[in-house]
Amino acid sequence: MGSLGNDAHEASSLFNLNPLDPEEFRRQGHMIIDFLADYYRDIEKFPVRSQVQPGYLRKRLPKSAPYNPESIETILQDVQNEIVPGITHWQSPNYFAYFPSSGSIAGFLGEMLSTGFNVVGFNWMSSPAATELESIVMDWFGKMLKLPNSFLFSGNGGGVLQGTTCEAILCTLTASRDQMLNKIGRDNFRKLVVYGSDQTHCALQKAAQIAGIDPKNFRAVATNKSTEFGLSPVALEAAIQADLEAGLVPFFLCATVGTTSITAVDPIGPLCDVVKEYGIWVHIDAAYAGSACICPEFRHFIDGVEKADSFSLNAHKWFFTTLDCCCLWVKDPSALVKALSTNPEYLRNKATETRQVIDYKDWQIALSRRFRSLKLWMVIRSYGVANLRNYLRSHVKMAKQFEGLLVADNRFEVVVPRTFAMVCFRVAPSAMAITFNEETNVNELNAKLLESMNVSGKVYMTHAVVGGVYMIRFAVGTTLTEERHVSAVWKVVQEHTNTILNSYQ
Amino acid sequence: MGSLGNDAHEASSLFNLNPLDPEEFRRQGHMIIDFLADYYRDIEKFPVRSQVQPGYLRKRLPKSAPYNPESIETILQDVQNEIVPGITHWQSPNYFAYFPSSGSIAGFLGEMLSTGFNVVGFNWMSSPAATELESIVMDWFGKMLKLPNSFLFSGNGGGVLQGTTCEAILCTLTASRDQMLNKIGRDNFRKLVVYGSDQTHCALQKAAQIAGIDPKNFRAVATNKSTEFGLSPVALEAAIQADLEAGLVPFFLCATVGTTSITAVDPIGPLCDVVKEYGIWVHIDAAYAGSACICPEFRHFIDGVEKADSFSLNAHKWFFTTLDCCCLWVKDPSALVKALSTNPEYLRNKATETRQVIDYKDWQIALSRRFRSLKLWMVIRSYGVANLRNYLRSHVKMAKQFEGLLVADNRFEVVVPRTFAMVCFRVAPSAMAITFNEETNVNELNAKLLESMNVSGKVYMTHAVVGGVYMIRFAVGTTLTEERHVSAVWKVVQEHTNTILNSYQ
């Protein structure tokens, strides 16, 4: 820093150190590493789901920012005492809620390097390595998934790292919207129709809202047990036909591999065959289950992807890469660029003008972008394809283990088939007294069971309601989880079920 | 991890360690801290702007992902040898390009904690501390800026951390679009008009494109030297009147405090007065200069903010908080929530239903969100209001120092008034032989000067073209910059100017 202001009062509180002093960075950096290593070591001591009440923190922190600097020691003490109690421990081995976000050492280190370099990689020029590593790693990952060459840079497609699936869907939806509007004219904006199923992630609805699609033209096609809650090509075709007859213009389908509620899989190939003749853009949302497709035994779930236009998965969900890291591949990057590019003078540069480089700012919503590929690169290299497959398989194996325990106990029901590393179960109606046999009461009892387990702090699971059935989701995916944790959870489930069933006698 | 798959070949390459093993985390974490501390210590050894050619990295890295794990030592060696040469060193004290992104130890530590906890804070329930700390810190920061109470939670407004200004603008634009459509009906979508100036950041155009606003209805009102390239309320009113007469519907204005090209300031109060009667939403984009407004002597630049609807700044630009961290305050959070909320069953929870909590997923594009407030909180506490002001003032002082050197040398011209920590200058036409006195040649010479300095690796600056004038932007804001670096840059500028002017003789 240069010499500082003259205000005597303010100068008196001066730190003499530069806020990025290398040796002070070293000292404080080592402190935080030890803090976090201890946190992981001790993580099972904390209740998995935070037990604080709304507003807890406002009571504990000052109303205004401090005027004078505070030491890192004081701040870390406050992290321990005030922040940690309000954290739901997503990295706990007893965390089985939502979809876990699997952290790893390599993912963490990659984020540290990215934060340390702190480059703002909007275009190639602003930090060539950020752009080039991203395109290389996206080709690596694409090959691991056996994506067709048309999704790789070598096949004139390409991949980009976004923050989340919401952004990936919004970008592809905007690109396809503008493609369609160019054909049919902007006067027909209100006729555009988006398709998903009633199991599609809410990201699609949100993206459609933001992109200005008339809410009336958002089709969540109903699914049911006969297709295991996958989107039926027949039902989709019927919906499209009805819309065409009403003079509307179908333009976007989001198909899902591994839905959020129950990891259902939409049949990609047949769905693509249905929409092909209408010029509908197909996006495959494999946010959760896409990672598993690096294992040959799971790859068939994305068969047909070669007919789709774009494909995304969240490496921060089940690929050991910390939040946020959504991988999006597209066959036609120019569609994204046409919809999302702006070229202000202050970003003009020779590299861009030669057209030999990618400027990723035109592939996403934001201009500024972090050097996210570092963490994906470090994860892939640190573990290698071999171990990554093994890690994923170990999660699936643990889910099977839990499924086996449920199946062997006739008080429980596995409600939908387990496909990946998540089991959806409930206390079966048959386990209850006859008066509680109606669906609503069964649902109520299971909701109580889940809440009582979560309140115990020993485990955290969440729920879904599909086809009117309330189910408890047991999602394995946290990196620290071992078989012994699954066994321990099973005990918790049994104990709480006993208590609940007894209370209903 | 549970026990692993049976594939003999894959099992042979197995790491026995869990990928989040606490002691291995500690070992590797300390290695990276030392790597980065050394990087900061040695950063002046590297050319500021990367000197690699397009495609350099593809030649150096394997075409496919490794099958077997690689050691952290190997990977770090590759970071040093292959990645660092492709980095433009945004943290170098000789970096004066674009707007710098000021890193700090506290910002880095906050990002580490956030990555370490790796919570996915979409709603309150998923990690109460993430939501609560964010709302508290946004109130702190709002008070530091003397934002009116109506932008704070205590005044029924509130703040949220987004990734970038692009996202902040897209969210507020979508909220105001839907508010207006509710009044005028969706049939009038094509009549909606967005306003900015020809100096407004391209984020506005991009947001309007994504939100489906007809490109014909995007008004970049021309600015000129008479208002120092600030948006004229008179010109704005004329544009609005013309649109109203054409039957269009004005609904959104983005005013800027500190434009990207030349840090011009739009007159917020008078602009708000103009649009008030039309029900236009006013967003203030203070991405760069907003931070400076924590200093009393700069606060007047946002006078009138009390009449606006939303206000944003990038803490990752000039507030020592690493990328990404955009602070957005709004008066009416319900407008965001109405436009951006989705409420799927799998996220239902008691806390949300009591309406005592904030679910930030409904204030932004994405569902998933990082625990960004940790870094902003740590920055504010580690340095305190006093030092934060002093740091910002020191940057302004260094910019003044550079301006003084330019002014004293009559070969140079400060092209537009310096307002914050950026100086826009050029070699003056008068310094050149008479035949080169035409504007295009003056521009050409200055472009050559800039490129020759950047190629030297000693400094990195970028350019702008405003009112037909090509200017070199000298933006102070990198944390490690000291007065001695500014003096050194001045020597570089003089040497290269001498060479260029001589070559034109």
Automatic annotation (TrEMBL), chains A, B:
Cellular component aspect of the GO annotation: cytoplasm
Record's subunit section: Homodimer.
Cofactor: pyridoxal 5'-phosphate
Residues with N6-(pyridoxal phosphate)lysine modification: 317
PROSITE patterns: DDC_GAD_HDC_YDC (PS00392)
Coiled coil: none
A GO molecular function held by the record: pyridoxal phosphate binding
InterPro entries from the UniProt entry: Aromatic_deC, PyrdxlP-dep_de-COase, PyrdxlP-dep_Trfase, PyrdxlP-dep_Trfase_major, PyrdxlP-dep_Trfase_small, Pyridoxal-P_BS
Keyword set, alphabetical order: Decarboxylase, Lyase, Pyridoxal phosphate
Domain of life per record: Eukaryota
Pfam families per UniProt: Pyridoxal_deC
One GO BP: carboxylic acid metabolic process
Entry's family note: Belongs to the group II decarboxylase family.
CDD domains associated with the record: DOPA_deC_like
Leading EC class: lyase
Entry EC number(s): 4.1.1.25
Record-given protein name: tyrosine decarboxylase
